[in-house]
Amino acid sequence: MFNETFDMPPSTDMKPEMLALIIILSTFSILGSIGNALATFVFYKVRDKSTAQIFILTMSVIDLFTCTVIIPFTIVVEYLLYDIKYDIVCKLYQFLITSKVPLSAFIMVAISFDRYFCICHPLRRIVTPLRMKIVLVCLSTFACCLGIITCLAYGVYREASVPSYQISDANQARIVDGIGSKFLDWRPIVDEPLPSNDVTEVVLSYIRELLNKKNASQVISSISKTDQIVYIGICSPNNLILDFHFLNVYQKFYTVLFVVCLVIVCILYGLIYRFIQIRRSKKLHQKLVLCSYMNGEHGFEGTRLTLLNGGDEEQQQQQQQIKAEKDSVSDDESVKMDKNKNTEKRSVSSFTYDADKLRDETRSANIKTAVMLFTVTVVFIIAFLPAWLMAHKFIPTNIVVFYMYFSYNVANPCIYAFMNPVFQENLKRIFRRS
Questions:
Q1: Domains delineated in the chain
Q2: Which InterPro entries does the record cross-reference, listed alphabetically (predicted)?
Q3: Percentage of the chain lying above the pLDDT 90 cut
Q4: pTM for the full model?
């Protein structure tokens, strides 16, 4: 997660909070695994997937991986207070947590572009399933690069200035005999009690002797130090591979990246809303014009109205056929007409009416899908905003509230269940078969 890019969690006693965190994350993991497994299975079975269904399937796979791997991993890391001990495990955790989050944000942006072109520019065919798959691969690669940079900045080793104590040969021999040659290994655990033995007394007596002769600052300054890579066992930022200056710049870039994604999403959905409002205004204006024709004095106006709203039996059958064809296709892609349609000759006015109706139904279906995916985006923003604010010190840190961003991965299947007819129908079929 972006918050943990460079900041360690607070070291205060959080036992009640830790218990609550474990219970909440465990619940998220169980419920999210079940819901996302169903969503992944349902959308994987859909043939001729539209671009929206490809995005939903991708999000379901990411959410399933998060609930089955990343959330349990987070529980263990938090329970151990980041005392992971193994460098590879530390880097793996940081990679997973910091590549998954930006990938979700990137997908939100891609979805907003998809909905914008499907609703506002449906005839341009800019967004296709093949192009969306290529975009997803590129976004995943970029997110992995961000995760790699973060994992290289973390580890259980750190470069530190270690004092080189000048102890007599006799005492140094006793130290080596007592605790081995790794006397200078350093691990900054303050509350770890010192062992009570002869070797410790040798070191302490030497320090006391120095303190009796000089003040503390002189003693510290008189001790020579050497820079060494020391093992601390705590998964934390270090500058062994990447310089801290670079990490600070990277953190700012990481922060701006989420702001840019949020702005793009808001702009695109704003344009979609504006397009819908303009179109509704035009339709309302057309209805008012028709009403004025109906009450007019010119004969051609009545004739035009008859053409548009013809009541003959053939036209009604054609309307019902179009509606049946529309209901048989996906709710979020352009309608694919049946090749075995009735080929009888129809009037130009009837064909125009059918085409307009078909286009309106398709746009209405795309709008419904856009509303569902916009809901997913809103949930994403609400879930991640507190953690983002805590990560950048805008609000006080609360570990339970912080990890509530995982609720986003659990909420998505619920949104599909309530707002996606394809998911509902396929889910009913699964339970009927079982």
A1: 2-156+240-272+367-433 (1.20.1070.10), 166-222 (no CATH), 275-358 (no CATH)
A2: GPCR_Rhodpsn (IPR000276), GPCR_Rhodpsn_7TM (IPR017452)
A3: 24
A4: 0.68
